[in-house]
Design a protein that fits this description.
The protein is mostly helical and 218 residues long. The protein contains twelve helices and no strands. The chain has helices spanning 2-16, 19-26, 30-33, 40-59, 67-83, 88-92, 103-115, 120-144, 152-156, 160-166, 171-181, 184-203. Helix 8 (120-144) runs antiparallel to helix 12 (184-203). The longest helix is centred in the middle third of the chain and has 25 residues, at 120-144. It is flat and about 60 Å long. The N and C termini lie far apart (50 Å).
Length: 218
Amino acid sequence: MARVALDLLNETGLDGLTLRAIAKELDVKAPALYWHFKDKQALLDEMATEMVRGAAADLAGTPDADWGTSVTTAMRALRRMLLRYRDGAKVYSGTYFTDTSYAAPVEAQLRCLTEAGFTPGAAARALLTATSYTIGYVIEEQATGPRPGADGAGGEGYDLAARAERLKDYPLAAAAGEEMFRGYEDGFEAGLAAVVAGVGATLLRPGATSSGPGARPA
């Protein structure tokens, strides 16, 4: 049922995804779905869990590599997973997983970080920081970027010319639009590199050396 809901999500978006619409897709009466989900939030929880089930191996990163490479690989996989679905990041954000599919990838990442010299607490904070950046970035990307299959202005993404006109008295803010709302792939990579560098600079345990993102202690 969660898989059907995810397929329907690509057609309707989050706002159009209702239990009634899912019931119609399944050719059942809407009340029948309440045997499985008490409300829409419970459905979203299961949808987020289904996303993770299909991407768990990729979300583990590359634990046999240095910590920065592993975290970077995992966050790229998380972004790809979220982008597979219209409003995927909004669905994923703030949900509660319904099983432990997420646990193995998280364990692998935390082990990689602690072995590199992070305390358990710092490793958890590092992973949460990178994850929060990725989810937040994709929420904005999906809200302002081109929508696959859309026509007209919605298909082209943010109208930067109109934005620049509105902000003509604020030239720096106007010019920033090109960096913020174009080239999402490059923008994500630049931001992720900054996050990983910051994590290494501020959270790596004193005494462990890090010459840059991804370095293990000497």
